[in-house]
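ok so for the tutorial part 2 we go from a plain amino acid sequence to predicted structure tokens. step 1 is just haveing the sequence, like this:
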Amino acid sequence: MRLFTKIKKNKTETKKILYVDFFFQNRRHRKSLKLDDNSRNRVIAQSKIIPEMLVKLHQGVFFKKEMPTVDEFKEISFEIQSSNRSELTQKDYRSKYNKNLKPYFGDKFLNEIKGIDISFWQNELLELDYDPKTIRSYRGVLSTIFDDAIKAEFIEKNPVRLASKISTRRRINNSTRKISPFSLDEIKKLLQTTENEQMKNLYALLFFTGMRGGEAMGLQWRHVNFINKKIDVEQQIGRGILGPPKWESYRTIEIIDALIPYLQSQFELTSDFNSYVFLNKQNSHYWDISKIREQYWKKDLKKAMIAYRNIHQTRHTFCSTLISAGEDINYVSKLAGHSTTKTTLEKYSKFIPNKKDDFGKIFKEISL
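step 2 — the prediction. this is what the tokens look like for a chain of 368 residues:
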């Protein structure tokens, strides 16, 4: 058995961990000793741990499965799923796991967790005012880990599937409550007071197309057709990673007349680079829409004396404004890239115009 070191990194520190490398029955194996690499632990590994491992190999008990914790097995699960997920999705799921799954379940053995534990966890997040849709996305990450554990024959049932479901009514009400669109006067005021020309053009694009922030960051001039007045949404950038649009919502968006002068202004700024529509000071694409929020969005709203809303409200503004104006919901849903019209109705039903004064008049002819 060969002793070697593997570097493990997290946000706060870098560690060197001892591993062993060996061949058994024509197969190579690498196993962590879960010890920091130092002189004392190397002595322990050489004098005690490795001899014990050799004895277990000889007795045929070394490879008997020991129940891993959720945190230990999640690495295996992420490796299994790496071919099914984009790099951006993997990064997003790891973030979700570390933020709201590891603190609750990370140190528990896979077979310890019951459906009721999942129910209590999600209830706690609901009390903290987490969006039910967000909690469902966390559940999805955890459920996949347990599904993979079933395939690995560590457990027989997935406890996530035994947990109580979040009611649809609460999910819809919570989603709708968090929509806070900008008024037309606020949009006009923000565009008038924003000094940075590129940011003004970006805000106009977001308000007048309903594009997601990541989609705007990933937009290239080859996607913009001034002649046919169309924008093709084919990619997004999030956390520095270029990938497909969220939920793979590829679509074509109409360039409305109000947007044209802002796109033309931006074309003069960045078209010479023949690449992304919006560029940072290094003439490269932005790493993430969060950079815009921190560097410009908050300050520009404050200067315009407009109450703060997150930048995603530009998308809600686009959808709710069109629906309030009586535009076809099916078409709005298509422009927004929603998977179904049902999604659009759940989010924006309260913005559907009130009935007309002559509502029901058509039935008058057959009344008694």
